[in-house]
Every structure is written in C-alpha cells, then in structure tokens.
User: What shape does this take?
Amino acid sequence: MEMTGLFFYLVSVLIAGGIYAVLCLALNVQWGMGGLFNAGIAGFFAVGAYASAIVTTAASDKHLGGFGLPIPLGLAAAMIVAGVTGWVVAKICVRLKSDYLAMASVGIAEILRLVIVNESWLTNGSLGISGVPRPFADLVQGRSADLVYLAVVWFCVLLVYILCQRLYVSPWGRTLRAIRDNEDSARAAGKDVDWFRLQTFVIGCALMGLAGGLSAHYFKFLSPSATEPLLVTFLVWVMLMAGGSGNNRGAIVGALAIWFIWSATEIFTSRLPPEWITRSSYIRMLLVGLLLQFVLQKFRSGLMPEKSPKIRSD
Amino acid sequence: MIDFINLYLVPGLAIGSVYALGAVGISMIFGILRFAHFAHGDLMTIGGYGVLTAVWFIPVNPLLLLPFGIALAIVSALLVDQFFYKPLRKLPTIYTVIASFGVALIFRSVAQLFWSSGNQVFTSGVRMPMVLFDTFRISELHMQVIILTVIIAIALHFFLTRSKLGRAMRAVSDEPELAAVAGLDTERVVRWTWVIGASLAATAGVFAGMDTSMHPNLGWNLLLAMFAAAVLGGIGKPMGAIAGGFIIGIAEETVTYTWFSDEAFISPSYKSAVAFFIMVALLLFRPQGLFKGRLL
Assistant: This one.
C-alpha cells in the first residue's frame, strides 16, 4: 500500500514536472534564444487553461460555452489565444529596451487575472470551471488514469522539444542567436530584428498556453485562486536558469530538477508541527529566491550549458 | 461636484502621492543603474513593516516613526545592491532585472515570515474626516499624505538642482561615460540613489499601509502603477515621476466616477488596469514620456 501510494505520488510529480517542462521550453524560446524577458508567464498559462477548458467542457450556463469539442482542439485554442495575447504585448514593446517588455508582461498578466476574476459570464468568476474532460477518460478509470495522462503530457513535452530543437538549429534560430548576442550586427546584416523578436515572443506564449491547457485537463477544475501566479512565473525562471538557458534539453532537466526539489521539500515540511507548516512555505520561497541569485552569479550557464551547433562551411 | 472632489479627486491625490514617491525611486534607479527595479514595491512593504513594528513599541502617530521604516528600507536596499545587484553590473542589465525579480520574492517571503501573511493595521478605530468650509470632507491622513508629498517633492527638486551630489546624480543619469571621465565617483552616486529611492519607498509604503492595511503583497500590487508613473514622467526625470504618480492616481480614481451615466464609467474592479493602459498608450505614442525622459 505504502509503495503504490508512493508510486502514484511520483506519477503526479512527473505530470506536473512535464507541464513545467513545457513552460520551461517555452521560456527558453523567449529568453534562451531570443533574449526576451517575460515576467507574466502565469498570465499566458492561465489564458491557455481557460481557453482549453471553455472549448472542451460540456455546455454550461455558468460560463461561456462549453462547446464540448475534442481536447486537441481545446489545446489548439489555448495556443492561439495565448499567442494572440502575446502578439499584442510584443507588438507594443518589442522595439524598446527589454525592461519595458518585462513591465508590460507583468501588466498583461495582471489584466488577465482581473478579467478572469471579474467576468463571470466568461469564466464563472471565482467559482471556477468544473468538469474539464481528460483525454482517454473512458478507456481507464480510477488511479491508473493518471498513468495515461502522464503519457499524454510527456508526449506533448516530446513534441514541443522536437519543435524547439528544430527552431534552434534552423536558420531562423541562428538569426535569433545573432540578434541576442549582437543586435547591431544582425541589423547590419539585414535582419528584421523586431519581426524576429515578435515571432519569438508569440511562439513562446503559445507554448505557455499549451502548458496551461494541459494543466486544466489534468486538474479537471479551474479557478483563479488555484495557483499563486508570481510563484509559478518565478519557479519557471529558476528552472530555466538552473537547467541552462539556450539549451532545450537543459530546460527539461532544469524543470525536473527544481520541481523534484520543490516537491521533496514539501514532503519534508508536511511532517513538521502545524504551526511551522505555514512558516516553512515562506522559508521555501525565500530559499528559491536565494537559489536564483546564486545561479545568476556563479552558475549562469546552468547544468547543461548552451552549445551552438557547428556551422558547416562547405 | 462636491462628491467628485471628496470621494474621487482627493483619494486620487492621496494614492497618487504613494505612486509619486515610489516612482521617483524607480525612475532614478532606471536612469542611473539602467534597469527596471522589480523589487521596489516590496521595498515599500519592508519599510511599512519597519514602521509597523516601531508602532508596537512606541504607540504614537506612525508618521512620527517614519525614520525607523526608512532606516530598515535603506539597509535592505544597500545590502541587496551589494550582494545581489553589484556582482551583475558588468553583465547586460537584463540580468539585474531578473535578480530584482528574485529579490522581490525574497523581500516578500521575509515579510511573511516575520510579520505573518495577514492584514495588520497601524492604528485601530474610526477616524472622522475633517470638514472644511462645511463642504469638503477630507480624511486627516489624506491631507497629511498630500502635504508631506508636496514638501518632499520641493525638497527633492532643490536637492537635485542645487546640491553638488544632486547634480552629480543627474550627470550620471544623463551621460554616464562623460560623468565618469569628469571624475565623478559613480559608486557613491549609486549608493545615494539607493538611499533616496529606499527612503521615499518606505515613506510611500507607510502611507499606503495606513490608508488601508499592511500585508505582504501591498507593494507588489502598487508596482505596475509606479512603473506607469515613471514611464509617464520620463525615465530619469524624478520630478516627472512625481507628476506621473499624481496623474496615474487621479486617473485611477476618477475613471470610476459617474461621468456619462448613473453608472461608474469604468467598474472599480478594473481600476488597476488604468495604469497599464496609460503605460501602453505611452509606449506606443510617446515612449520618452511627457517630460522628455531618455528612451533606453
């Protein structure tokens, strides 16, 4: 009994880790390849989650839709809505210093949160959306359904990884690295810097939306208070920095490593006396904050540093 | 009309004072250190808690205990700069932005750890508003906040234009290479930027905490409006940031007034979106801000 409990705990950690891996790969497109700062990850994640939930749930009078469409369409909608939101932000800020994009991405995340909380015709407000379907739900019941979902999530991670890797080695990715490392010379070589950055930001946001959709179908229920937005955004940044920004494999490794540490400390702190449990969650946050500072100063290239592919000169 | 002044304009000026004082620091740090300081809101929170703690021991008007909050904020800012920002100064500034994002989380979790995550008030009890000329009903706190902010703004103006240090700060902000060649001690200027930024942030944090209540998210929730105010005033223009803060504060409060019909023009729940849209409009049409700040 103890063993199966532990096994399914591990499965749930791996599912969440897979969702974080998608987020981390998405941020790697934006920051690792494009050098764009996104501080509103949780906002794009939430938009994707709600989009996919509204598209796939059965009709309900509590919120917009549900349209009862298949889950792949829901995930596609998640990517489109998050991508369009990202396009609006990037269109405005991409020609300015990256700090402005950072400010605006915090802003858009806040606006999205306000919309989700206040527009109950759309999202059922703070009561949330329930009954979000899971893929292959009629095939397996009970706990082993988690195993099926684990496969679904990691299949998505694989697809996103292949996509990101193709982007990275393509001429498009090479142009991005050139822009990131020396904007002026890329511009002098005739590259449309703003256009490339815009594309990068939109692709990243769409992938964050996908991660949101995956989490909605995992939890089957969505409400604005489900996650602490700043913590999600922050964890993804720490994951990418620790894993190695610019390296897609590093992004996945970083996501898993940090998520394992985060979950393991949760097991540890849940055994503390009750008056310490709330406190210890603040200590964990404090330590993650310090970990980011350490990584930034001493360990900037991460566990798996970026290795640019060789340029063939034949 | 009287309602408009009592319930919209004056509260707008009061919250505008908070934004103004916070935005000065953001604008100066952006101008001199060249990065958007994401931990500035949480620096306000730390300053606010400093005064809250002092009130527990010395039960007088919290405004008299401001020096305790200011001292705590200055020490925190200088320590954070020394250990977290300074080692990254040779790198592209975006790394410092990321670091400051982390510092925001550190400040917040420290606040939650030491002062609990709930709401705490400075002084309990109902305070009656002052009635002037039988028509204006203004809370005493709002009055004090607005007057203090105006005094601080005037003092800051004279400091920046008349004193040697103030002029050095403006020089580093306008032309860092030239300032260094002219023999200005950049590190000293940086230190004083933190001292001034942190002092004003702590003051703003106490104002905000007294107006509502102290809680660990207090400063983070104000950050967006302060960024908007700093951009509105023009980066590197402290006086512009003060004007920007007042404009954003008044705009936020007055959009909920019943301008065109009996209903609020914009629902109060979307109040905090106003700052964002002002910032977006500025970035689109006038990114240098109203007062010709530098476009970084």
Q: What stands out?
A: Chain A has one domain: 6-226. The two ends of chain A are 61 Å apart (CA to CA). The CA atoms of residues 61 and 121 of chain A lie 9 Å apart.
